[in-house]
Design goal:
globular, 11 helices, 49% helix, single chain
C-alpha cells in the first residue's frame, strides 16, 4: 500500500480535487470502534439458523456494514428463492439483535482512544456511520465517546434507504457533519462494503483490517491507505496528518 503522500496525490488526481482538507473523520462502528465482529458473527449464525438460513462467519464479515435487513433479504433470496418484505426481515433481524445482546459486552478497539485524542487535538470533528440502528449500541457510543461525539453526528441504518456499499450513508455523514464536501472528510473502515461505500462517496478512505479477510479484498475495493490494526493507524496518524497539511 502507498505511503500517505502518494495516496493523497493519487486521490486528488482521481477526483480532480485541489486539496485534501479534512474537517471531520467518519468512523464505522463494528470492527473499528469496537472489537465486536466475533460476537456479531456468532449472533448472525445462531439467529439465521432458526430461520433455515446458513450463514457462515465469513458471510458475516463479508456483508458487514450493510443494513441488517438488506443482508437478510439477500440471504433469503439466494438460499430460499423467495422475496420477503423489509418488515419480515426486520423481525428476523430482531432475533439477531437479541442473540448479540445476550453475549458479553465487547471492548473498545485497542488504539481507538489514542487515535481520537490525536484527531481532536488536530481540530477534527468525529462522526460515526454504522449499518446498525439498535438503540443500546447508540447509547453505548455516547457513553464511551461522549467527549468526542454527539448524537447529531451519528448515521444509523434508519437514516438512509440504501445502506453500504452504496455511498448514501457516508454522504449523509457529510451532511450531518455540517454539509461538508468529500475532500473535507476522512473515512475509517474495516469492511469491504464499507470501504466501497466510502470510496463511492469520493471520500479519502482508510481501511484497517481488524478481521480475518485478506488485505487484498480491502485494497480491491479502493482503500486509499491500509493498516493491519488500529494501533498501527494511531501510531501513523502524525505522519498522515503531516502529509495532509503539506499536500
Amino acid at each position: 500500500m502507498n505511503k500517505p503522500d502518494t495516496a493523497i496525490h493519487q486521490y486528488l488526481q482521481k477526483h480532480s480535487f485541489e486539496a485534501l482538507r479534512p474537517k471531520a473523520v467518519l468512523f464505522d462502528m463494528d470492527g473499528v470502534l469496537y472489537n465486536s465482529m466475533p460476537n456479531h458473527a456468532i449472533a448472525w449464525q445462531r439467529s439465521m439458523a432458526k430461520f433455515g438460513i446458513n450463514m457462515s462467519a465469513h458471510d458475516a464479515y463479508a456483508t458487514e456494514g450493510a443494513r441488517g435487513v438488506d443482508t437478510i433479504r439477500e440471504m433469503v433470496r439466494q438460499q430460499q428463492g423467495r422475496e420477503i418484505t423489509e418488515q419480515e426481515a426486520q423481525l428476523m433481524y430482531d432475533e439477531k439483535t437479541r442473540q448479540f445482546h445476550a453475549m458479553p459486552e465487547t471492548q473498545v478497539m485497542t488504539g481507538i482512544p489514542e487515535l481520537m485524542a490525536q484527531l481532536q487535538a488536530d481540530g477534527l470533528s468525529i462522526g460515526v456511520v454504522t449499518g446498525s440502528g439498535q438503540r443500546p449500541l447508540i447509547n453505548r457510543l455516547l457513553k464511551d465517546f461522549g467527549q468526542y461525539l454527539d448524537e447529531l453526528h451519528i448515521v444509523t441504518a434508519y437514516d438512509v434507504k440504501r445502506g453500504k456499499p452504496n455511498p448514501d450513508p457516508y454522504l449523509m455523514g457529510l451532511t450531518k457533519m455540517g454539509g461538508l464536501q468529500p475532500w473535507q472528510a476522512l473515512v475509517i473502515e474495516n469492511a469491504p462494503l464499507g470501504v466501497r461505500a466510502g470510496v463511492a462517496a469520493r471520500i479519502f478512505t482508510i481501511a484497517v483490517n481488524t478481521g480475518p479477510l485478506p488485505h487484498e479484498l480491502l485494497e480491491s475495493e479502493g482503500a486509499n491507505l491500509l493498516f493491519s490494526q488500529m494501533t498501527d493507524l494511531s501510531q501513523s496518524w502524525p505522519d498522515i496528518w503531516q502529509a495532509i497539511l503539506q499536500g
